[in-house]
Each structure stands twice: as structure tokens, then as C-alpha cells.
Amino acid sequence: MGFIVWLASELMFFAALFAMYFTIRSVVPDQWATETAKLDIPYALVNTLILVSSSFTCQIGVWKAEHKFQPARTGSLLNVKSWGMIEWFYLTFLLGSVFVAGQIMEYATLVSHGIAINSNGYGSVFYMTTGFHGLHVIGGLIAFLFVIGRAYGAKRFGHREATFATCVSYYWHFVDVVWVGLFAVIYILK
């Protein structure tokens, strides 16, 4: 229950970031017309699909943890059907890391096009909203490492470890849903 309450507080934090975005956008709409033209929407869409696909791999890992109490693979690494929670969470970690690397590359490209955090209101809002989201993704990646480490360290993988994995998955799905909202507002909404 405490974890859900904490996620609700995170929701309020991101609601404030969305409010900031819309407020500044309404004050200086001309910046949005010129600056959003510099966004690479196909690139951001691919990066978004990578993050969204990580929610699916995360959920398969949770299913292995909750319903099968299977922390690790039971067969060959190449036999995906034999994977346990650990392997699915490693894949989720990899996809999340690719997303973060993609964001960093996008930042570098935007800075080269003159959009920096200190360039104007658009730059400030863009980097604050996507940057705070990126920090939350990194926090989720660290949480996956804790879950994986805990699974390796457990003498017997049981309900307690599965519950921990489930809580981390709630956080990860939350971060993914927030990104879908940010993607829609920043890249799609004109």
C-alpha cells in the first residue's frame, strides 16, 4: 500500500511538470512553433517503442516470478521459453538503457541545433520534463539490478521476492505511461 501511495506522489510531481509545460507554452507560443520543428519525431518514436516494449518484457518477468516462482532460466539461454524473471529483467534493463542512451543522443543533437536548457523557455521546459523522466528511468534500472541481485541471493525464491519484483514493475509501468504522455504532449501535440 505504501508503494502505491509513493507512486501517487510521483504522479503529482509529473502533473506539476505537465502544468509547467502547458503554462510556459501558453505564454510564449511562438517558441513552440519554431523549436518543435527541430524535433526528430521518427527518432523519438523509435525510442518510445523501445521503452514501451520494455514494459512487456518486464511483465513477462513478473509473471515468471509470481505464477511460476521461477527466478532463473531452466534451459538454454537461447531457449526464450525457459527464461525466468532474471533473464526477462535483464532484457528490460537493456531496453531501458538503450532508451536512456537514445535520450542522451537526442539531447546532443538538439543542443547542436541551438536548443539548450538555458536557451529559452522551450529548452528549459523540454529538458526539465524529459530530464526528470530520464532520472526516473535510471532509478528504475537501478531497482531492476536490486531485484536481480535479490533473486540471486535468495536461498528459496518465494512470495516475498515475487512481491518485490511486482512493486518494481509497477514503478516501471508508471514511468512508461508517463513517457507516453510526455511523448504525446511534446512531440505530437502541436
TrEMBL record:
Transmembrane annotation, as ranges: 5-24, 44-63, 84-105, 125-149, 170-189
InterPro entries assigned to the protein according to its UniProt record, in alphabetical order: Cyt_c/ubiquinol_Oxase_su3, Cyt_c_oxidase-like_su3, Cyt_c_oxidase_su3-like_sf, Cyt_c_oxidase_su3_a-hlx
EC number: 7.1.1.9
Highest taxon listed in the record's lineage: Bacteria
Broad class of the protein's primary localization: membrane
Presence of the UniProt keyword Nucleotide-binding in the record: no
All residue ranges annotated as the Heme-copper oxidase subunit III family profile domain in the record: 1-190
Similarity comment: family membership: Belongs to the cytochrome c oxidase subunit 3 family.
This protein's name: cytochrome-c oxidase
Record organism: Brevibacterium salitolerans
